[in-house]
Amino acid sequence: MDIKTFIACVRLLKPGISVLIKGDHGIGKSQLVRRIARDIATDMGVKPEDFPVVDRRLSQMSEGDMIGLPSQDGRTTTFLPMDWFMSCVEAPKLLFLDEGNRGSQEVLQASFQIALDRELNGHGLNANSRVFMAINADETKYQVNPLDPAFIDRWFVVDLEPSREEWLEWAKDNTPDGGCVHKFITDFLEISPLMMDPSGNEGPTEKDTSRRSWDRYSQAFVANKMYDWDLKDEAKYNLIIAFSAGFLGKPAAAAFCDYLKNMERHLTAEDVLNEYDKNFTRIEALSQGEVNGVNNSLTEWMRNNTLTDTQAKNFGKWYEYHPAEISTGLWQQIAMHPGDTTVNIKLMHKYVAAATLRGVNAAAKTP
Questions:
Q1: How many Å apart are CA 294 and CA 362, to the nearest integer?
Q2: 57 CB-near residues (< 8 Å, 6+ apart)
């Protein structure tokens, strides 16, 4: 399920339905829960600060951390509830149980009661409090405890698979709700989308890339003003590769640093759409891989912006310049997102119609 669908589904749920989010590491589960809390606060008609997230990591908790500690009055013994749980009893909050299947069996048993009965040792959650849990589901990739069907049955279960486009949209957002990831990084990931997520080729103790690692790397990249480094200086270039590898793993670090070093060769969607003629010499020098990267950038741009007539003409020039199979592939990429690109398709159609027809005719003549 992508993020847009996930948010829409969750906003249809009543507070009494607990939500279990399954997904790989680094895809933004924790950040998404905080965004959901703000959306729920809006639906409730309250300020976000009046519906905060209470975050507990089950992997770090013991049984006592869940059910509280015993107290006795000289005659009987009771368990005093933990302050974090009572805060969700006394006022509406979103209780987020992270790393759910890394907790001990005793901790998981306590979460059974919270998820299904919305109470713990006789203390019931506020009627408007919500319960979310996040887990890494693939037992072949993660050191996690198996969850039985009776446990899973207690939750509204989501297999979260955010699209690359959704993550890039968040990463480019420079508001407090966005990722504020540096433009050099998002531009690189648009033309190298396979570098965004783990390759699966690294060993169990070797560093690999993830969306979370790109986010963390961006913070360090900006803090050290690496966007201003002269990478023609060999010492600087070697240093930034070593530094980047610590966040991204060696393959992604090498690819990104090569992109930085040769940035003048790389074209953005804006370079094509706004100044095609000025950049034509650079366009002629592009490799096939670089053309594919520009096409990825153009597709993403079309999903989030509306063409002017000048930009539509320049798109037509780009489309006409490349062989039919490449241009047709670009058209198919853009057409895959009709809800986002329909307006732009209409605007550019008259500038690409002739080339598209030639491509179709050429394909028809191919034995």
A1: 24
A2: 98, 99
Take residue 123 and report the two structure tokens written for it: 């203390």
For residue 359, pLDDT over 60 is answered with: no
**Alpha carbons 112 and 231: distance in angstroms, whole number:** 54
Give the C-alpha separation, 89 to 129, whole Å: 8
Give the tokens for residue 152. 């899973």
CA distance 103 to 116: 18
Stretch 328-339: mean pLDDT, rounded?
86
For 96, the 3-state DSSP assignment is strand
Flag whether pLDDT at 230 surpasses 80: yes
Judged by DSSP in three states, 97 sits in strand
Q: At what angle do helices 250-261 and 183-191 cross, to 10 degrees?
A: 110
What residues contact residue 88 under an 8 Å CB cut-off, 6+ apart? 54, 95, 125, 126, 129
What is the spatial distance between Cα 219 and Cα 224, in angstroms, rounded to a whole number?
9
pLDDT digits 0-9 by tens, 131-177: 998 888 766 666 666 777 877 888 899 888 888 888 888 888 888 77
Q: Are 310 and 276 in contact (CB under 8 A)?
A: no
Record the tokens describing residue 215, joined without a space.
Answer: 């986010």
d(CA 249, CA 232): 22
pTM over 0.70: no
Q: What average pLDDT does this structure show over 99-118?
A: 80
Q: For residues 203 and 201, what is the distance between their CA atoms, to the nearest angstrom?
A: 7
Q: Indicate the average pLDDT of the chain.
A: 85
Strand partners, 132: 19, 96
Q: Which residues contact 1 (CB under 8 A, 6 or more apart)?
A: 9, 158, 159, 160, 161
Please state, in angstroms and rounded to a whole number, the distance separating the CA atoms of residues 326 and 295.
9
255-307 per-position pLDDT tens digit: 999 888 887 667 888 889 999 999 998 888 888 877 887 888 898 888 888 99
Compute the residue count for the chain.
Answer: 367
Q: Alpha-carbon distance 326 to 359, whole Å?
A: 10
Task: Please state, in angstroms and rounded to a whole number, the distance separating the CA atoms of residues 138 and 207.
Answer: 19
DSSP string over 184-218? HHHHHHHH-GGGSS--S-S-TTS----HHHHHHHH
